[in-house]
Design brief:
It is built from four helices and six strands; from the N terminus they run ββαβαβαβαβ. It is globular and about 45 Å long. The protein is of the alpha/beta class.
Length: about 160
């Protein structure tokens, strides 16, 4: 597993019962992670990021959550090294303007010192698209070189 450079994960039914301090392998060579995850499983996302110090590209697809209660607790812990030191591109798909999605975007923008590009996929049926885009552009950024772009996705 140490030689894996690209990894793609879907949210599995076992994730909700996965302990928050589960021991995961270290992915020294991982440069791209594509992951589908709801906010109640962010502890797994952050655990994976802790094991991938050289991650450059993160493609994150936000899945609907049964509950947003406590979903941001995982963000209150430490910032994974890859987020602060090596992440260059984040593509965030499936934004429906839920509070937890905005918190994750603010978390990355505020901590990713070397982020060059943030691509945000917003559902085309969202009524307040313009306001969400304006708000996201105003958030503080750890990387002044970060370009933010938006694309519209059909609601499924």
């Amino acid at each position: 597993m140490a030689n894996i450079r690209f990894l793609s994960l879907n949210e599995f039914p076992i994730w909700p019962v996965c302990p928050s301090k589960a021991k995961l392998p270290v992915f020294h060579n991982l440069v791209r992670l594509d992951i589908e995850c709801s906010c109640q499983n962010w502890h797994i996302l952050l655990a994976l990021l802790e094991c991938a110090d050289n991650l450059r590209i993160l493609v994150f697809c936000s899945l609907p959550s049964r509950s947003e209660h406590g979903c941001d607790q995982a963000l209150e812990e430490s910032v994974p090294k890859c987020v602060s030191m090596s992440l260059k591109i984040l593509t965030f798909k499936g934004v429906y303007n839920h509070e937890c999605e905005v918190k994750l975007l603010r978390y990355v923008l505020g901590n990713a010192k070397f982020l060059e590009r943030l691509e945000i996929g917003i559902f085309s049926c969202l009524k307040k698209q313009g306001r969400l885009m304006r708000d996201l552009l105003k958030y503080p950024r750890a990387s002044m070189a970060c370009d933010i772009s938006f694309f519209f996705e059909p609601y499924q």
